[in-house]
Write a structure and sequence with these properties.
16 helices; alpha+beta; Rossmann fold; 22 strands; 3 domains; Uridine Diphospho-n-acetylenolpyruvylglucosamine Reductase, domain 3; 6-stranded mixed beta sheet; elongated; Phenylalanyl-tRNA Synthetase, Chain B, domain 3
Length: 474
C-alpha cells in the first residue's frame, strides 16, 4: 500500500467496521478532485479489503457543455478502472424552482436520492461521499450562521447509516497531495469560483479574510470546536436515551407515551433531547423538528391542565394528567363503535383491541377442584372472576357508549363510566380504545383497570364466569 492517506483510511475502516469483505460500496463521483481521490482510494482498498465498487455520477445540467464534459470524464475514468457506472441527468434548476430550494440544496437532495436509488438497486452496504475536513469546517460555520444548536455545530458524522465519509479526517491539501503522488487528473467546476453560493463565499472570501485580518486558521479552530462539542453531545444524547427509557410508558403504532411529571423534572437540555427521541420514533427521522417545536412541547408539559400542541408532519403532542403522548395522525384515529357478543366458553381474538379473550363457566365446586381456593384477583390482573348469575343481557366485548354505568369495585355506589375514567385520569385519546366487558349498559369490567362491585364473586356465588385476557402481538 505504502501511502500514508491510504493506510489511514484502511485503519479508519478497521476502527469503524466498514468496507468489509464481500460488501458493495456505491461511490459518488462528480469528477472533481475530492471525488476522484475518493474513487482512487476505494479502488486501491477494494483489492486489499475484498469489497466491490459501483460509481454514480449525477449530471446537474447547470453548466451546459462543461457538465457534459464532467460526465464524459467520469465515464472514461470508470472505464479505465473497470468500475460499473450509473449516470443520472437531472434538471437541478427546474427542481429547485418547483420546490423552492436553493440550487445548492436542490443539487444535494438529488445527489443523495440518486445514490440511495442505486444502493437499493444493487443491495450496497455503503454509500461513500467525498466530504473532507475543509467541507466540515464550512458546514459547521454555515450552521453557526443559521443559529444552530449543538447538533449542528457537531457537523457531519463520518458514518450515518449507509453513508460513509472516508476522507472527513483529511484536509484539501492532503487530497491534492494524494492526487499529485498518484498522477491523477480531475475536472474543475467553474462555479466553485462564483460567490453566488453562500458556501463559496465562506470558502473564497470569509475564511481567507479571517486569516488575513487575525492570522487565525478558522477551519482548524472550527474543527477543534466540533470535536469537543461532539464529545459533549454524545454524552448528553446517551444520558437522554437512558432517561427516555426510564420514563417511557408506552411505544406502539407511531405513538410514544412518557411520564409527564418525570419529564417536567428534567433539565431542559435532557428533556428537549427526549422530545427529539420521541419525535424520531414517531416520524421516522429528526427532519422537520426545530427548536421552536421542542419548546412548544416542553411548554405544554410544564403548564397545569391538559394541553396539546400541533407539530409538523401531522404529529401532535398531548399533555394529559401525568402522561405526554407524541403521536402521528394515523395512530390517533379513534376506533369506531365496536361490540361483539362473547359466547361462553370460547377463545376469541379481538384485533381491534389487540387482545385474545378466553372465557369459561364453572360451578363453585368445579372451580375449586380445578384452580383451588376461590380468591378475588388483583384489580390490574388480566384474569378475573365474576358471578355469572348477575348477568342479565348477555356478555359483550365493546368500547364505551353514552350512558354506560359502572359500579367500581370497593366503591360506595354507581357512577357514569365517563366520570370514572376522568377520576382515573385516563386521557381522552385513550378512552375509546379501552376494551369493556359489558352487560347491556352496565360495565362488568374495565379491562386492565377495574372490575364492577355488583358482579363480584361472593360466598353465595354458585356459578363463576372466568375471563382471561392476553395481549396479541402486532
Amino acid at each position: 500500500m505504502k501511502d500514508e492517506l491510504l493506510e489511514k483510511v484502511y485503519s479508519w475502516a478497521d476502527e469503524n467496521g466498514v468496507l468489509k469483505p464481500e460488501t458493495l460500496v456505491v461511490a459518488g463521483v462528480s469528477g472533481g478532485a475530492d471525488s476522484v481521490c475518493l474513487f482512487h482510494v476505494l479502488y486501491k482498498l477494494s483489492s486489499a479489503r475484498a469489497f466491490s465498487i459501483v460509481a454514480v455520477h449525477v449530471n446537474h445540467m447547470l453548466r451546459g457543455e462543461e457538465s457534459d464534459g464532467d460526465e464524459d470524464f467520469v465515464r472514461e475514468l470508470c472505464g479505465k478502472y473497470g468500475i460499473p457506472l450509473h449516470v443520472f441527468r437531472e434538471d437541478v434548476a427546474a427542481f429547485a424552482n418547483e420546490n423552492h430550494y436553493s440550487t445548492e440544496e436542490a443539487g444535494r437532495l438529488i445527489r443523495y436520492r440518486c445514490l440511495r436509488e442505486v444502493a437499493d438497486k444493487v443491495c450496497a452496504s455503503y454509500i461513500a461521499v467525498a466530504h473532507h475536513r475543509d467541507d466540515q469546517a464550512e458546514t459547521v460555520f454555515l450552521n453557526l450562521l443559521r443559529g444552530t444548536g449543538i447538533d449542528g455545530l457537531c457537523g457531519m458524522p463520518e458514518i450515518s447509516g449507509k453513508i460513509i465519509r472516508p476522507l472527513l479526517r483529511f484536509g484539501k491539501q492532503d487530497i491534492e497531495a494524494y492526487i499529485r503522488r498518484n498522477g491523477l487528473t480531475y475536472r474543475t467546476d467553474s462555479s466553485n469560483y462564483e460567490n453566488a453560493y453562500l458556501r463559496n463565499t465562506i470558502r473564497n472570501i470569509i475564511f481567507p479574510g479571517i486569516k488575513l485580518q487575525t492570522g487565525t486558521d478558522i477551519s482548524a479552530s472550527l474543527i477543534r470546536m466540533q470535536k469537543l462539542l461532539r464529545t459533549d453531545r454524545d454524552f448528553l444524547n446517551g444520558y437522554a436515551g437512558k432517561k427516555f427509557n426510564d420514563i417511557l410508558i408506552l411505544e406502539e403504532n407511531n405513538r410514544v407515551v412518557l411520564e409527564r411529571n418525570e419529564l417536567k423534572g428534567l433539565h431542559p437540555a435532557i428533556a428537549g433531547r427526549i422530545i427529539r427521541i420521541a419525535w424520531e420514533r414517531v416520524s421516522g427521522s429528526l427532519k422537520g423538528l426545530e427548536s421552536v417545536h421542542v419548546d412548544m412541547v416542553l411548554d405544554i408539559v410544564s403548564k397545569e391542565g391538559n394541553r396539546t400542541a400541533e407539530l409538523p408532519k401531522g404529529v401532535t403532542a398531548a399533555a394529559e394528567y401525568n402522561r405526554v403522548e407524541i403521536s402521528a395522525r394515523a395512530s390517533r384515529e379513534k376506533p369506531g363503535p365496536f361490540s361483539v357478543r362473547l359466547e361462553v366458553p370460547s377463545t376469541v381474538d379481538l384485533p381491534v383491541f389487540k387482545i385474545r379473550m378466553e372465557s369459561g363457566i364453572f360451578s363453585a365446586e368445579e372451580f375449586s377442584e380445578k384452580f383451588g381456593r376461590i380468591e378475588k384477583p388483583r384489580e390490574n390482573s388480566l384474569t378475573q372472576l365474576f358471578d355469572y348469575s348477575k348477568i342479565k343481557e348477555g356478555i359483550y366485548i365493546r368500547n364505551r357508549k353514552p350512558g354506560d354505568i359502572f359500579f367500581p369495585y370497593n366503591s360506595s355506589g354507581r357512577k357514569k363510566l365517563k366520570d370514572f375514567l376522568i377520576d382515573q385520569k385516563i386521557p381522552v385519546s385513550m378512552r375509546d380504545s379501552i376494551p369493556l366487558l359489558a352487560d347491556g349498559k352496565n360495565i362488568v369490567w374495565v379491562i386492565g383497570v377495574r372490575t364492577a362491585d355488583n358482579y363480584k364473586v361472593t360466598g353465595s356465588t354458585n356459578t363463576i364466569l372466568y375471563v382471561n385476557v392476553m395481549k396479541l402481538n402486532d
